[in-house]
Design goal:
By secondary structure, the chain is mostly helical. It has one domain. It has a two-stranded antiparallel ribbon. Helix 1 runs antiparallel to helix 4 and helix 3 runs antiparallel to helix 5. The chain is globular. The termini are close together.
């Protein structure tokens, strides 16, 4: 899933590169407004989950509400996305499978309380969250006339 995540992120960023800044920042009615805002939120979500999983740095934005504006510049968003995808892949390759059986406990800003769940379940949520918001971006890109790659797993080189 880490490889799929990187492959699909590259696809949506390549497609978004064919649009101008105004098109990427146009509020299209998605949860996080624009293509750029949704991709910034997705980076934020990945950063916060990787912090919980591996102790990596927290995201610059301190809340879900602030996440769409966390990275204002397109080139910087692309740079941070590439770095995060590499960090996710490195973490996934080096993770001890036994860790997935342990519970992870954290304070959830969204739920406003401490939460504890099995790590394997949370990793599944992590990748599902990415797919959910990339699907929104894919739809916005397609509506704007851009063409991301196919998303089916069997198209990915293994």
């Amino acid at each position: 899933m880490a490889r799929y995540n990187g492959w699909q992120n590259q696809s949506v960023f390549d497609a978004a590169d064919t649009l101008d800044e105004a098109e990427r920042n146009l509020d299209r009615g998605a949860f996080f407004g624009s293509i750029h805002g949704t991709l910034s939120h997705l980076l934020w979500g990945d950063q916060i989950w990787m912090h919980r999983f591996s102790g990596s740095p927290l995201p610059a934005a301190s809340s879900i509400e602030a996440s769409p504006g966390m990275v204002a510049g397109w080139e910087e968003l692309k740079r941070q996305r590439t770095a995060m995808d590499q960090a996710i892949s490195t973490w996934a390759q080096g993770m001890d499978p036994a860790w997935l059986e342990d519970d992870l406990t954290w304070f959830s800003g969204a739920a406003k309380r401490e939460v504890s769940k099995p790590a394997g379940f949370l990793v599944m949520h992590f990748f599902n969250h990415q797919t959910h918001h990339r699907g929104q971006v894919h739809a916005m890109l397609t509506a704007a006339g851009a063409k991301p790659d196919d998303t089916d797993l069997f198209y990915m080189d293994i």
